[in-house]
Amino acid sequence: QVQLVESGGGLVQAGDSLSLSCVASGFTFTKYTMGWFRQGPGKEREFVTTISQTSGTYYGASVRGRFTISRDNAKNTVLLQMSSLKPEDTAVYYCAAKTGLMSVSSDMYEYWGQGTQVTVSS
After folding, report:
1. pLDDT per residue over 24-38, tens digit each?
2. How far is 85 from 15, CA to CA, in rounded Å?
3. CB atoms within 10 A of CB 26
4. Spatial separation of the C-alpha atoms in residues 60 and 104, rounded to whole Å
5. Which three-class secondary structure state does DSSP give residue 24?
6. 97: number of CA atoms within 13 Å, CB side?
């Protein structure tokens, strides 16, 4: 019943911008902290960014200044706006949800989307 559905991934050139969306259903979106994680080929899942119930934000060092997370509670949607993309950003990007405070730890998140592929070419 709980669903997080990511969309917006694709193939872009280094330096380009791309926006990802995550539409949530099956739980009370406004009561949850939302986050984005990514997993590149042969790499561990990595924290990207998180946004609290009150729209406070936190970013991983590798994306700070380039990525922006936001939420639209009326649409049960969280957005990840990515700019100045680098080949190192190539990964499957996952939307996730948790109760309580923001966290950088994937283990703390209850719900996960299926992921959307972002590929950045040189």
Report:
1. 999 999 999 999 999
2. 5
3. 11
4. 8
5. strand
6. 25
